[in-house]
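Work Package 3 (structural annotation) set out to generate three-dimensional models for the target panel prioritized at the project kickoff. During this period the team completed the workflow that converts sequence records into discrete structure tokens, so that structures can be stored uniformly alongside our sequence database. As a representative example, we reproduce one entry of 500 residues exactly as it appears in the project archive.
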Amino acid sequence: MTSLTEVPGEPSSAVTGPGGSLSDQLDGAHVAVVGLGRTGRAVVDALATLGARIHVFDSRESSVEMLQTPVASTTVADAEATAAALAQSPARLLVVSPGVPATGPVLRGAAAAGIETWSEVELAWRIQQDSARPHVPWLTLTGTDGKTTTVSMLSAILEAQGLTAPAVGNIGTPVIEAVLAGSADALAVELSSFQLHTTRTLAPLASACLNLAADHLDWHGGLEAYAQDKARVYSRTRLAAVYNLADAATEDMVRQADVVEGARAIGLTLGVPSAGQIGLVEDAVVDRAFGPDRFREAIELFSLGDLAQLAPAGADLPAHIVSDAMAAAALGRAAGVVPEDVRAALRAFRPGAHRIELAATVDGVRYVDDSKATNAHAARASLGAQADGTTVWIVGGLAKGGRFEDLVANVSGKLRAVVVIGVDQEPWKSALAGIDVPVTYIDPASPEPMDDAVAAARSHARRGDVVLLAPACASMDQFASYAERGERFAEAARRNDDPH
């Protein structure tokens, strides 16, 4: 291994060191699985095929009851009791759900008991390496924002080349399901900081961190720990480590990454690119990183016009969408995709739901659903696409340890009014104190908080304005998911939708 600076590598595994295949080493071994959602159940199934003796832990009896695979033991308990039971179990390996906090009792207890901890991604990678197809390339990406859009674009780019290349990981489909299916020619892998925290030996063909901003600080225990886990995406990269020139943190991650000798750093810029970069020349995104003569010529990959369908109705194409497309193109180029297929894939690409999506137009006011904007960085990007003084902004939810003073200061010029939802409104009352636009706080005890929020927003909006749901917070205080939050917003907006 080598690096752009000096960084020590990961310690070797205590569970699967030298001496036999993964199945040899796990056959008969006691392995704990904490968390039995879709990913946890897939992990249990995979471990069963390897002959492991599986001990499962979850806080809900219903999750245990959904298991179809026989296991050695089951424990239904809260985090503290799970940590105690885990320490007393015979398991020396733990495969943990990404929802289990780094600073919580389960991972702290496992470390104290000398139990090695893997993510589902780590297990999937080791199974891939032990399979008949160990050379299937993994293209991995993370970032505070834009991951799902970018990994979806990447999957489309790879498939335009004729590859079977599903988007997996944090996007919703467990990586381990795709690995066990055995049909992929490449994997477009979205990785959260949660997953990266317990991923040890993954060696992607190419990797990227799109950006870094404060998020999930409650889970990690602070910004430094969050950044360290994000930086893991670059570890052991074999060909290309892609970073954002506009985000110095990502460049620093690449400089310090422990990579395979010969791997190159590839910068992305919205300006004119230098050799080794992908960037923008007038309205064309060009490649000076992967071409045979990158020091003297640029290869056009796509134009801004090829992304026109991704612009919010009535607004300019957001810069972050262009950056996401560049990152997807860079990872695709690392896998050998030709420019024509990059362009064709992006021209045909459509965004997922709840991402700057026009929900309704009522009395000349556009209602835009960006419920996926679950942190300040994403909300800032969403507001940046709007005209000054025209946005009625619906915000609030689970703050995840974040503060919003800087966000409000940055976007205040865009605002007509603000409507705050959510159970914990203190961070917003602090951030919005003294702002020179009307602010409405929705009663946290309201049985229909989104209906109330849309009604309040409607009272402030004028013809030509936009009511924007970009909450900068997670949704689980009042909704099952960001998707449900967005659907409730759209339903409330459409009740009086214009007929044409």
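The chain has a mean pLDDT of 90.
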